[in-house]
Amino acid sequence: MDASKLGRRTFLKGFGAAAASLVIPAAxxxxxxxxxxxxDGKRMARFAHITDLHFTNRPQNRYPTSHYHIRQAVADLNxxxxxxxxxxxxxxxxxxxxxxxxxxxxxxxxxxxxxxxCCFGNHDAEGDNVAARKAFxxxxxGDQGLSKGDNYYTFSPSAGLxxxxxxxxxxxxxxxxxxxxxMRETQYQWLxxxxxxxxxxxxxxxxxxxxxxxxxxxxxxxxxxxxxxxLLHILNQFPNVQLMxxxxxxxxxxxxxxxxxxxxxxxLVEHPxxxxxxxxxxxxxxxxxxxxxxxxxxxHGDEDHACEFGTAGVRSLGLMGLSYNRAGLxxxxxxx
Length: 336
What we know:
Elements: H1 3-23, E1 42-50, H2 66-77, E2 84-87, H3 98-109, E3 116-118, H4 122-125, E4 127-128, H5 130-140, E5 153-158, E6 161-165, E7 175-176, H6 185-197, E8 202-206, H7 225-235, E9 241-246, E10 253-257, E11 260-264, E12 274-284, E13 287-296, H8 305-308, H9 310-322, E14 328-333
Parallel strand pairs: 1-2, 2-3, 6-8, 8-9, 9-11
Antiparallel strand pairs: 1-12, 4-7, 5-6, 10-11, 12-13, 13-14
Helix pairs in contact: 1-9, 2-3, 3-5
């Protein structure tokens, strides 16, 4: 499929969402904040997709209470009936502070009652000495994915369902000074081999940078054109890749890339601190369904005042207004 056609399609979806956000200032109320996830059949997985925590203990105006949200999120997640949690990058806000902030983040994460899986975001990798920073994160993040030692990896939460977690900060050399998504040829080859090995399973992909953008003015935040075409070429060979999860933009949406639907996750750090709930069911032989919706943290009074009002509040309001397709249902083809 031609990348320009993808761009026009995602632009039309995004343009409609942008227009709606101008007409409806209280954009959060335009769709249910938490649609009920109710599917028949056999449950294959129920998980939370969280992205862009931007954790930091450093006082700053952009995300004034980011150190607090993750603890609230862990408490909230533990009330849900989950199999695991998927984190798609930007765990940290200041890469240089990772060394002395890791303990605070992992102290919160170790309270999760279910396994969690992470991938790298641009804020986790940005700067020089990228390899050393990634090695430190893998050695200390305490998840069930990166902690095993690989920058990209795969796991299976249930029979017939497989996740592939990619590293979209995978650049040549040891410096990463861009917000664009990159993958080296070695990772593309690994992805192709992994998909070939698991072509009899339904595959979901997790990554930080989406390969496409819903708004043309944000084009530089996605993959570069060469990488977009390389990834598209691979995925078009494997129609069992049916769903992709990404973050990076700090607002939510749903688009199409190759054979897969792409769900952009809203950022946990932005008011009202949303994350996505996803449930996957096998409905009948060869047929499944996915239900997804948004959940927002319950914050009280002064806990969130700095994020809800002022500069941070205006930023979050704009990003939530750009969001669309917060809740929905999808059919799913399962291997027989």
